[in-house]
Amino acid sequence: MRRRAGLLGLHAAIVGLLVGCSLSGSIDPTKPSGISQQLLIRSLERGLAKLDLQRFSGRDVDVDVFVQSGNEAFIREFVIAWVKAHGARIVWKAPSVKLKVFASVYGTDQYTSLLGIPAFQAPVVNVPVPEIALFKWTRNRGQTELRVYAVDGVTEDFVEQLPLGVGRSKSDDFTVLLFIGFSVSDIDKPAN
Hints:
The chain is 27% helix and 41% strand. The protein is of the alpha+beta class. The chain has one domain (30-185).
């Protein structure tokens, strides 16, 4: 009787452990990932920092932002806030100049170099084999290219084109001999 109760308790513990392991409560990561968001905002800041906006300081300006891909509403509001922070007055009616800002590039890329054995599915037995990295370098890059055209606020005649504002950011992850991992990043450095 005791032995049967002991086995029943052991089985209950094993089943509880297995159920507990299979029902892990985890939060799904955001899309895009946090590191991608940091790469994007830093590259946008750095691209804007390369634009000479002092010539619009104290002037009534309207800003139109056009985005090829990405969160257009966020980029638009960020660019407008940046222009305001650099002394321009944002107006919607009768501006002296209209800025047409084109985010022709706004995105992230990832490149990986691996010295070792990549993960693969073993043939015949259909068992996954994990990656064995003697050295692995994962390069995450953010890039923004901004093209700004100034047009007359009333006639919409072309006034000038600002030099291209290019911003880049990076975050690199390294793995050495399977266990040693470290990161190198410039995303915490503010734009100049």
